[in-house]
Amino acid sequence: MEIKNVALAGASGSIGKSILSALxxxxxxxxxxxxxxxxxxxxxxxxxxxxxxxDSLEVVTQVLKGQDALISAVSFxxxxxxxxxxxxxxxxxxxxxxxxxxxSDFENKTLRTFPAFRDRVEIDDELRKKVPGTGMSFTTxxxxxxxxxxxxxxxxxxxxxxxxxxxxxxxxKVSMTRLSxxxxxxxxxxxxxxxxxxxxxxxxxxxxxxxxxxxLAQKLTPNETWTIIPAxxxxxxxACQDLIAKGADPNxxxxxxxxxxxxxxxxxxxxxxxxxxxxxxxxxxxxxGELETMIxxxxxxx
Length: 302
Hints:
Helices cover 38% and strands 17% of the residues. By secondary structure, the protein is α/β, with parallel strands linked by helices.
């Protein structure tokens, strides 16, 4: 089936921007961005922007009529809101739904027990329950660590501060993917409609360790001092569990970050992918020299 009309929710976030950029660059789709009336985000002139009450099933269903695919890139805190998006997409006759479950592999049994991922697991389960027999299918994109975002925000290191929390010794090899590659993967999924139906696709730009990336960053800044803080993911999880026991929202950053670190660096949650769908989706991964170039650019940012 050819996908032509594509709706995107959450287009102003980091992943959403990358998806929108890739959709536009492909020149294959007519794109509609759904945004809340309170959002001040702006978008390119060649994108249709529709203000939507995301709490109204009737409104969202009406907006989605005529759309072939709905891509969600809503924030971590808003993942549960996708339940309404699923119902609206089915009612509107949408053919493919891509949920905002980017990152970890939610088929991993250990990961599914983590409170911080409860909403994502529930959305994954809901899709598998509701989709059969409706005419709609879904695809989940599993991309591991978002490497460029992680170099800015701490999942790898904090480049602007020349600081790193070295999780569990930094020696566990994991799958990592750039934001731009996630966007390209979405385009690839829409172009491989039958082959990607009702399953997760696994992508990466490279597989490496946190220590290897930190070593390269330090090599590129020979006259600068980095602050390295050892961190134990089990202790971080225990701290998050304590916060949740005291009433913290599992989706809050403070209550979820330990689980995210554990999911990536413990070696227990399938963070190094055994099978990849890169070739199917037309993804080449990182070419020689691209990693160093990317790190140089991120280190140069203010």
